[in-house]
Amino acid sequence: MLSKRFGKIAVGTVAGAMLMAVAACGGSGSTGSTTSAAPSSDASSSAPAESKLKIGLAFDVGGRGDKSFNDSAYAGLEKAKTELGADIKELSPAADGSNRGDLLKQLAEADYNPIIAVGFAYGEDVKKAAETYPDIQFAVVDSASNAPNVTGLLFAEEQGSYLAGVAAATKSKTGHVGFVGGVENDLIKKFEAGYVAGVKSVKKDAKIDIKYLTPDGDFSGFKAPDKGKVAAEKMYQDGADIVYHASGDSGQGVFQAAAAAKKLAIGVDSDQRQTVDAALQPVIMTSMLKRVDVGVFEFIKAFQGGAKGGSNTIYDLKVDGVGLATTGGAIDDIADKIDAAKKDIVDGKITVPTKP
């Protein structure tokens, strides 16, 4: 159900999925909750029970404090500190992300193991680091891998975005909504594709404005609230009454534009109604939850149990790895409709596109 039980269900279900992944084999193209390339489990090899966990985490551009993607990852890291007694170290890249590889090297040289890289842009850097430090286990969010000491933490963003589209189209009074993407790359296009499909499933003739803040390769689009504000302002001026953003810290600008226009917005990654300034909370109708916190924590927990890499774990609607936030109650009146769409996706009656 579209309920407050979301987080509890996700942690328990995904924990089991990850632990099963270390003993299974399968192709990386599977759409199930876990896929494994060449994993193995050896309780004596990765993290002996008597050793204190030392976990390193390298943020994506924008770093901690973005009230979205990076902060969700940090929540999982912080949970490992609290519940597993781990020592933690976090590092943030330069504004252009040019030193991602250096961050991984710093953590490895300081004997942090495992090391988690937040964001698909770390894909090649993690591959190189994993080859250089074969005794260290790595995880990378949003990037698949089959390296023996790397775990890919992947998410079905298109599925959660489909639900956001259903909510937007159902609640819209004008039949006109918008989407602001941070960077025009394949990952963010998954958000767009799911959202558009969800909107169209409710209102085939709905008008959908789409704007990307920067082209592929220019990651500044995830940290440009001014650009997010301008993009959303134009959409509201043109008649949109709800705008969904997948733009990291740039979403703060989208919320500011919504407040000024007295319209609504949909957050992303974390429950942004709980993280933004109080003045902006009322404009956030819901947020598309991408449970990076769950992925990070369950990877660490599996590592502690002796799991090794070589697998890609997919967090989808089936394991509540994505979904919608209900804080504020703005979508409580359409819960049945959203739950029905979720069930159809989980049951395979709806296949959500991953490309526009």
Explain briefly what this protein structure is.
37% of the residues lie in helices and 20% in strands. The protein has helices spanning 6-21, 69-84, 100-109, 123-132, 157-171, 186-202, 225-237, 251-261, 292-304, 335-346, and strands at 34-36, 54-58, 87-91, 115-117, 138-141, 150-155, 176-184, 207-215, 242-246, 264-269, 284-290, 311-315, 322-324.
Provide an overview of this structure.
By secondary structure, the protein is an alpha/beta fold. It folds into two domains: 6-156 and 291-319, Response regulator (Rossmann fold); 157-289 and 323-346, Rossmann fold. The protein contains ten helices and 13 strands. It has helices spanning 6-21, 69-84, 100-109, 123-132, 157-171, 186-202, 225-237, 251-261, 292-304, 335-346, and strands at residues 34-36, 54-58, 87-91, 115-117, 138-141, 150-155, 176-184, 207-215, 242-246, 264-269, 284-290, 311-315, 322-324. The strands form two sheets. It has a seven-stranded mixed β-sheet with strand order 1-12-6-5-4-2-3, with helices on both faces. α2 packs parallel to α9 (292-304). It is globular. Mean pLDDT is 87; it is low at 3-50.
Strand order of the largest sheet: 1-12-6-5-4-2-3
What is the third-level CATH name, the topology of the largest domain?
Rossmann fold
User: Mean pLDDT, rounded to whole units?
Assistant: 87
Count of all domains: 2
Percentage of residues in helical conformation? 25-40%
Named CATH architecture of the largest domain: 3-Layer(aba) Sandwich
Task: Give me some keywords for this one.
356 residues, Rossmann fold, 2 domains, seven-stranded mixed beta sheet, six-stranded mixed beta sheet, 10 helices
